[in-house]
Amino acid sequence: MKDVIIIGAGPCGLSAAIECQRQGLSSLIIEKNFIVHSIYLYPTNMQFFSTTPLLEIGDVPFTSPNDKPYRHEALVYYRRAAAQHGLDIAAYEEALSVLPQEDGSFIVHTRNKRGEEQHHSAANVVISTGYFDQPNMIGIPGEELSKVTHYFGEAHPYSGMKVAVIGGSNSAVDAALELIRVGAKVDMVYRGSSISENIKPWVRPIFESMVQKGNITLHLESRVTEITPSSAVVTAGSGETRIIDNDFVLAMTGFRPSRTLLASAGVLMDDSLDKPAFNPSTMESNIPGIYVAGVIASGRNANEVFIESGRGHGKLIADHIISKRLS
């Protein structure tokens, strides 16, 4: 039996494993994809908002020639940090449920890439699964069409195409700017009266310039209400509708966490925010021995927890596990 099983090999899960290791606790990370899969899903050319020191874990230096590193640099860094600390990671193994036992321990049921089901036991479980697997669906006719995606990797496939971008956050703005660089015609549709206030400050003036020059057509206080094979129907707040011809739709509408593992363990959830009940000073949920780490702790409000804040959850958890042993 392990002292701790950590579900999710994102930066916060890796940090939790390192902190447990430092306290002499045995741990296993279970990851249904591969290490820092969420970062892998970021746009290929994405630049972080944070500087390298704020992304570091386990006292492993993150060096970069850039003040704010890029996605590919982060992938290399987190692989190196995991290897340097010799973390035990079961990759391509999906956690299916977390079942409390009468003695206070837990059984984690998993399925590996060969379809084989396995059971792992631990005295404590940390759920650090992130939220990239479940996009926020708009719920409109045509959203299921193959021309629609909630993920943006890179702009090259859209070269010379007409693309509607739904959203006004950093992901939507970054996608729009990359698209126009490859000659795409971009319509951007956002329900707000202006794009998000949280847009990267070095990106905002570039985006605004592209809008002013007509390279990006911005539809504010509007929403896409239907998608057809050749167009999108945009409805303004006034009720006026217009048809936008397009070849593809990028729905940059964000993501939400999965409740499955938390629910299987009996963790209480806020139904309106998908936010688990936990003590912020220890990260322990209402179920003793079940902890949350990283963005899963923020529920639907993904802007509440970032790598720079979530990486500290592991120390709170490890300290609490040791304190319980000593009490």
Automatic annotation (TrEMBL):
Family annotation (Gene3D superfamilies) = FAD/NAD(P)-binding domain
Q: Where is the signal peptide?
A: none
The prosthetic group or cofactor this protein requires is:
FAD
Q: Which UniProt keywords apply?
A: Flavoprotein, Oxidoreductase
Q: What is this protein called?
A: YpdA family putative bacillithiol disulfide reductase
Q: Which organism is it from?
A: Paenibacillus phytohabitans
Tell me the name of the encoding gene. Answer: ypdA
